[in-house]
Amino acid sequence: MDLLDKHVVVTGAANGIGRALAQRFHAAGAKVVVADVDSVLSAEVAAELNSTRPGSALGVPADVGSEQGNIDLIHAAEATFGTIDLFFANAGVGIGTDLDTAEDDWATSFNVNVHAHRWAAKHLLPTWLERGEGYFCSTASAAGLLSQIGSAPYSVTKHAAVAFAEWMSLTYGARGLRVSCLCPQGVNTNMLNSTAPEAGVSSSVVRSAGAVLEPAEVAETALAVIAAETFLIAPHPEVLTYWGRKVADYDRWLAGMRKLQARISGEV
Fold first, then answer.
1. Where is pLDDT greater, at 268 or 131?
2. Spatial CB neighbours of 254, under 8 Å, sequence gap ≥ 6
3. What is the mean pLDDT of residues 117-140?
4. What is d(CA 91, CA 36) in angstroms, rounded to the nearest whole number?
5. Where are the alpha helices (DSSP H) in 137-236?
6. Given pLDDT bands bounded at 50, 70 and 90, which one contains residue 211?
7. In what order do the strands lie in the sheet with 57-61?
8. Coil, strand, or helix at residue 13?
9. pTM to 2 decimals?
10. Dihedral of alpha carbons 112, 59, 74, 136, sign
């Protein structure tokens, strides 16, 4: 998809990867809805984009952790720009550790990391299928292809996010829907740099596994994949290497991950 003059929605767009996606898509000529639960920052990002091209961006406060939040966001985008050509479900949370994680944190993880994608798709698809075209992108994680040491909720929900994106492509790809799924590893964002106690092991694992990219680098890779209309957005090539090893010898890969977990746990 060429994003020139297209209408794009990016969730979780006030910071990090989402902000970089909104900026890069806007630079490619798109009109962008900057959606985020932080209404102040989403408005600031939209104002920044509008300063270079007036009327080309809209900041929308949106809590996509509920179905109604997704409905309201889609309505707001359509009310301003008429159509949505590309919806990038980028918002995500990284909370929780093991099976003792609070039930509310499990629920929040599923709502934001998985159900938000489902709810958005549910209310976008009728229009897209009628038009015979539409583009759905989602941010999962390398943890959705591999697994996240240190956080069960994150690992489980990111696997589910990848599976949902695959299902969307399988089910609707022949009817004009394009689907891409972003699976980055270490990115210089608030999530990676969190000082929360539960973030320690996960952050250490990610940093030890490969390069930490800047959000703008991830956005550049995403734009290239969207232009090619292919599925997997993998800004870290090493992730594909690890993924190949996992598929080739599952038990050996699991044994290696256990050793990594033991080493990292001893360092944190």
1. 131
2. none
3. 98
4. 8
5. 152-172, 199-209, 215-228
6. confident
7. 57-61, 31-36, 7-11, 86-89, 134-139, 177-182, 232-233
8. coil
9. 0.94
10. negative
- What integer best gives the mean pLDDT of the chain? 94
Q: Name 34's bridge partners.
A: 10, 59
Mean pLDDT along residues 160-179:
98
Q: Which domains does the chain have, with CATH numbers?
A: 7-237 (3.40.50.720)
Which residues participate in catalysis according to the annotation? 154
Burial class (CB in 10 A: 0-12, 13-18, 19+), 51: exposed
- Tokens representing residue 110 in the block: 């599923």
Structure tokens at 175: 């009817």
The angle formed by the CA atoms of residues 256, 259 and 263, to the nearest 5 degrees, is 140
Show Cβ contacts of residue 12 under 8 Å, excluding neighbours closer than 6 positions. 18, 35, 36, 64, 90, 91, 92, 139
Cβ–Cβ < 8 Å for 198, 238? no
Q: Is the pLDDT of residue 3 over 70?
A: yes
Q: Is the pLDDT of residue 212 over 70?
A: yes
Local structure of residue 213 (DSSP, 8 states): B
Phi, psi at 170, each rounded to 5° = -60, -40
